[in-house]
Amino acid sequence: MIAQLPLALELREGHDLDNFHAGPNGLALATVQAAAEGEERQALIWAQPGQGRSHLLEGAVRRARVRGRQACLLPASELLPLVPQVLEAMEQFDLLALDDVDRFAGQRAWEEALFHLYNRVMARGGALLFSASAAPGALGWSLPDLATRLAAGPVIRLQPLSEDDLAALLAERAHERGLKLNGEVARYMVMRSERAPAALLARLATLDRIALARQRALTIPFIKDVFGW
């Protein structure tokens, strides 16, 4: 029987591997896909927040489930209010994706729980995906053996998307929402907004909601009005 967490961990709609705009991050996408499909035992993806690492982990869990594997997303923000014992028996999953694992650094009880979970998963033949804000050796672990294990598989840094890639990402997601967003408008948003996928997509969600309420098209004057640019 698969262990049950005392919290509901829901995957966000729209976060799957098929719509991850890789740009220069093809290796990260391919590695995560391999883990989701049982062809890679572990990997750690790192980048600053908003660059897509959570998207990759959520997409991997979704892909693994489609393939008939037992998979679970474990965000640090959901786990930290609990006790480290919540990780006991989690090795029963075929794939565990621990998002923002760096948030456990310096918390000895959590580090030891993660260390033992890692060993149990590897012994059982499962797979582990991690995301973090930096490479394992730069996270300030108090348990050196844990840092060593986190670095045992591929460690891949997500590279920032170019302006063209960000504009293409906006256009793709707008199309998914049934919105018309031409290239000129998408580039305008990229030039004026924070140049991180998560920030741009949050702005797109805001535009979608307001455009629907006002029955407006996504034009540059409308966007200027909404965001005060």
Cα radius of gyration in angstroms: 19 Å
Q: How far is the first residue's CA from the last residue's CA?
A: 54 Å
CATH superfamily of the largest domain: P-loop containing nucleotide triphosphate hydrolases
Number of domains: 2
Query: How much helicity do the residues have?
Result: 40-55%
Which blocks of ≥5 consecutive residues have pLDDT under 50? none
CATH architecture of the largest domain: 3-Layer(aba) Sandwich
Q: What is the 3D shape?
A: elongated
N-to-C order of helices and strands: HEHEHEHEHEHHHH
Question: What is the number of strand segments?
Answer: 5
Mean pLDDT: 93
Largest sheet: 5 strands, parallel
Number of helices: 9
Q: Which class best fits the helix and strand makeup?
A: alpha/beta
* CATH structural class of the largest domain: Alpha Beta
* CATH fold annotation of the largest domain: Rossmann fold
The fraction of residues assigned to DSSP E strands is: 5-15%
What strand order characterises the main sheet?
2-3-4-1-5
Give your account of this protein's structure:
The chain has 229 residues and is of the alpha/beta class. It has two domains: 17-157, P-loop containing nucleotide triphosphate hydrolases (Rossmann fold, 3-Layer(aba) Sandwich); 163-227, Helicase, Ruva Protein, domain 3. It is 45% helix and 10% strand. It contains nine helices and five strands, in the order αβαβαβαβαβαααα. α4 (108-124) links the parallel β3 and β4. The radius of gyration is 19 Å and the shape is elongated. The model has no long low-confidence stretch (mean pLDDT 93).
